[in-house]
């Protein structure tokens, strides 16, 4: 088929990579990329830490994709709310689901609904200014327990640990800057069910704590093996070896010397599974059970201990959110698919296909492979009777939905960067964080 109509649902990295790949191979293709937000780039804007600006540079590449002939960005259009999955399938020859995964996996322990307990997805959305996370207003106390041993847990600990000066050149939203500066944090506990060898955080992120002005990095040397077990797969052995080196260096510093005067103590706690959160209305303490690792799995020991925790943040992974009619694998929390094929004419890529693992570039190969599948399936389709944009635009108009197009996003971008220049302190952008503000900027 020479002029297929293609809908991509989700303008994050995976959606942009798929659009780019299809655009290169099918010059006459018409691609509509929908996003529920008025802004594109998914977690590059709403997940990646605001003090890691280098990682966000990839957005420039995605911007070029969205600006190409034959590609339309339709922001502020949520599939399942403004237009249904069935309507998309009726309008387009191909539908690609790239909606990511940012619904928090719950800890599943008593006390999880107390005040002061948050999922990392909600917490990250709040500090990154995603409109539906904007009003979280988290209660950040003196003792913050972060459960999880991945990079998201480290991001949260680092942002809480940085001084306002260290955060100056980030695009942390003003409401979060104010909240972090006012937070009385004295202790941060980074808790892993398994040991340092099994931790999935990366060494660059782990090492950053050693450079923070007010953070003392505390590790009990007894929790660290002298070396990484030889039996581990090579990749894990390499990562764990480098992480262990950093952790041993932290442990060697101890609580004395330069660390003694630091006002914020970051405690690495390994081999500890959360059992319950105690408190009356508000979280007060976290009860943990010691574990040991057997064949890569955490095994409970029966021995418990308690740490003070008036804020608890669960950073243990995410699930995708399906919309009505979409085949969904409830157990894994992903779109049901076979190597990216969902049902005839429907495909999926990225975090909603594979689950919430992998950095931005990891989605590229996945998206390219799915684009290849689409191309080979399209080669067997001869006639196209679908109406594409014509049908969908009519439906949206009928429902009073006004999409934010690429020019609208550029206006938001311009407003945010202009506001940052006014602030004049080196921040790259001052995000608009509420839906009415974003829509007003887009439609001026
Ligand atoms: C807190 C955090 C920090 C991270 N930090 C880094 C990092 O430093 N470096 C790195 O390389 N990677 C990082 N990652 C991983 C990276 O963000 C992901 O690999 C990548 O964003 C996944 O891309 P995706 O397109 O599959 O999903 P997403 O980026 O989540 O994009 C999905 C898009 O779909 C849209 N959408 C969802 N539902 C609908 C709907 N119903 N209708 C229309 N649109 C919809 C969403 O609004 C979103 O724009 C981080 C992830 C998180 C959570």
Question: Can you walk me through this structure?
Answer:
This protein has helices at residues 13-25, 43-46, 53-56, 58-66, 85-91, 120-127, 151-161, 174-182, 203-207, 234-253, 351-354, 362-378, 389-398, 406-423, 435-442, and strands spanning 5-9, 30-34, 71-74, 94-97, 103-104, 117-119, 143-147, 187-191, 215-219, 264-269, 272-278, 285-294, 297-308, 311-314, 318-319, 328-329, 334-335, 341-343, 346-348. With 444 residues, it is α/β, with parallel strands linked by helices. The chain has a six-stranded mixed sheet, with helices on both faces. The protein has a six-stranded parallel sheet with strand order 6-14-7-8-10-9. Helix content is 33%, strand content 20%. Helix 1 (13-25) packs across helix 12 (362-378). Bound molecules: flavin-adenine dinucleotide.
């Amino acid at each position: 088929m020479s002029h297929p109509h293609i809908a991509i649902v989700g303008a994050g990295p995976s959606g942009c990579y798929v659009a780019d790949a299809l655009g290169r191979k099918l010059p006459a293709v018409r691609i509509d990329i929908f996003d529920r937000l008025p802004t594109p780039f998914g977690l590059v804007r709403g997940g990646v830490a605001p003090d890691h600006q280098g990682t966000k540079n990839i957005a420039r590449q995605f911007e070029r994709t969205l600006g190409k002939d034959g590609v339309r960005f339709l922001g502020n259009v949520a599939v399942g709310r403004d237009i249904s999955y069935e309507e998309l399938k009726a309008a387009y020859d191909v539908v690609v689901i790239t909606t990511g995964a940012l619904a928090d996996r719950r800890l599943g322990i008593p006390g999880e609904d107390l005040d002061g307990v948050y999922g990392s997805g909600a917490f990250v959305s709040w500090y990154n200014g995603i409109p539906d996370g904007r009003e979280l207003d988290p209660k950040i106390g003196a003792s913050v327990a972060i459960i999880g041993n991945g990079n998201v847990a480290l991001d949260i600990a680092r942002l809480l640990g940085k001084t306002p000066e260290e955060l100056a050149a980030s695009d942390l939203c003003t409401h979060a800057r104010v909240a972090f500066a006012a937070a009385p944090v004295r202790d941060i506990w980074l808790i892993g069910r398994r040991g340092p060898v099994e931790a999935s955080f990366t060494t660059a992120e782990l090492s950053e704590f050693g450079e923070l002005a007010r953070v003392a990095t505390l590790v009990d040397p007894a929790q660290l093996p002298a070396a990484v077990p030889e039996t581990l797969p090579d990749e894990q052995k390499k990562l764990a070896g480098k992480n262990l080196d950093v952790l041993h260096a932290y442990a060697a510093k101890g609580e004395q010397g330069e660390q003694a005067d630091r006002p914020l103590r970051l405690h690495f706690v390994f081999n500890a599974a959360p059992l319950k959160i105690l408190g009356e209305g508000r979280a007060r303490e976290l009860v943990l059970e010691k574990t040991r690792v057997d064949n890569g799995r955490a095994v409970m020991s029966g021995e418990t201990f308690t740490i003070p925790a008036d804020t608890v943040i669960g950073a243990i992974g995410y699930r995708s959110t399906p919309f009505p009619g979409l085949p969904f694998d409830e157990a894994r929390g992903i779109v049901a698919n076979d190597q990216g094929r969902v049902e005839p004419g429907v495909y999926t890529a990225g975090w909603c296909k594979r689950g919430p693992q992998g950095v931005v570039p990891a989605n590229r190969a996945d998206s390219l492979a799915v684009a290849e599948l689409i191309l080979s399936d399209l080669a067997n389709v001869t006639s196209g009777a679908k109406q594409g944009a014509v049908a969908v635009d009519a439906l949206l108009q009928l429902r009073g939905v006004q999409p934010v197009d690429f020019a609208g996003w550029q206006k938001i971008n311009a407003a945010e960067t202009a506001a940052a220049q006014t602030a004049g302190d080196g921040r790259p952008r001052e995000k608009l964080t509420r839906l009415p503000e974003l829509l007003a900027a887009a439609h001026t």
